[in-house]
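Tokens help. Our protein:
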Amino acid sequence: MKDFDVVIVGGGHNGLVASCYLAKAGLKVAILEKNDSLGGATVSQKVFPEYEARLSRYSYLVSLLPDQIIKDLDLKFKTIERDVSSFTPENVDGKDLGLLINRGLVGQTADDFLALTGNSDEIAAWESFYAEVQKLADAIAPTMLQKLPTRSQLKEKVGHKIWDEVIENPLGAVLERRFKSDVVRGIVLTDGLIGTFSDTNNLAANICFLYHLIGNGTGDWKVPVGGMGALVAELVDTAGKLGVTFVLESEVSSIAQVEGKFVTTASGKSYESNYVLANFAPQKLAGVLVNGAAKPALKSLDGSQVKVNMLLTKLPRLKSGTDPKLAFAGTFHFDERYSDFQLAYTQAAAGKIPDVIPAEMYCHTLSDTSILGADLVAKGFQTLTLFGMHTPASLFEKDNSGSKAIILERLLNQLNQYLVDPIESCLAKNSDGSLCIEIKSPLDLEAEIGLPRGNIFHKDLSMPFREDGTAPSWGVETDVPNLFLCGAGAIRGGGVSGIPGHNAAAAVLEARGL
């Protein structure tokens, strides 16, 4: 039996962050990882073996990772801000248009709003709404690496009606009141539904929306230089230099408490520790706890997205005439009108693949070509990452591969409605003639990286505060003393953030009086 101060189960980015903070404080730390490499969902992989292109296969953009963590751990990890926030193609009265939203709403944005909606009301509503949402970000972002504030404390800190609109009432109500355009409503709503199977009357959409808008107080979604794998590589290097022990190909089968200590068993070996951090889903944790430890039943929404990775020889031209290098530089929305989301949810909830699947994508290589080999850069190759919404795990249970084929064909056909060049004509080809495109369903995400039902947040997201009158908390505690969550299932977990890793480490250090 090997003895450590802290054993961390799961070598994703949050576990690595936690290990660095703990090791810096002088604790003896081990990470047990079931796979043969570290990173979890935060990895870069050579998806198409014949091409030197390392794609961020699962997670792909960075917003919630606090600058403070990068500074504290002296990480060399860099991100790139995107000047283009989003582009949305649309056909109005038989004319192909597009809404390009630049940072600061400058340049083409005002003209596009006017052409799409016929007046200046919507851009004014947009500016007003997001200026007020900024008050939420300003208040919440500084608390993410602290103990949870109470609801009343945070509400007082915000001090504005936007609290009631976004925190207390369904997101759909404020969008229907503030905006008139079906397209504009949908663009705003998308941040509430990424990875969340919900309609606009469920506060789950509000919580998801909030998390997408508060990162570092700006909500900017940034491109990781070198792909997600660059963050993992930097964390692994830092943790290694701090003396963290990595034990790979070690899947945990049990966590027990014996005479006041934890004994964690993985692949036939035992590891003793005073603390355990669970960097995997709470549902999975409940399954390995022994000795009568509490095993709470956790309600979990289905994961509700498909992820499509593509390698292109060129970007397709758009019917709107918009420069593809602008259109694909930010988030490219298609068929994400407010009404599209509502219909897709209704159909999917009834067990039917939506007739129109709301989707969005972005091109990493327009911001950062370092993920490609030099020959591919010279030839103008690009990557595209597509996220298809309202495709819950239940749609794939009877026939995963068949459902994926239907959904992929539907998505590409939808996309092609806005393109001069069919997307298939732009895809790179393997030597056997097959196209360089892959689709991952929620069930694939569960099988490959342990996300329950493909839920990228592990379980339902929680508001980033505790209710009045509840005990002080870091948001990582479990019913078992000295056993903490440090992954997406923690309060303020989800996304590539490192926040639950930091907070779990803080809980351990606080318990030790450090």
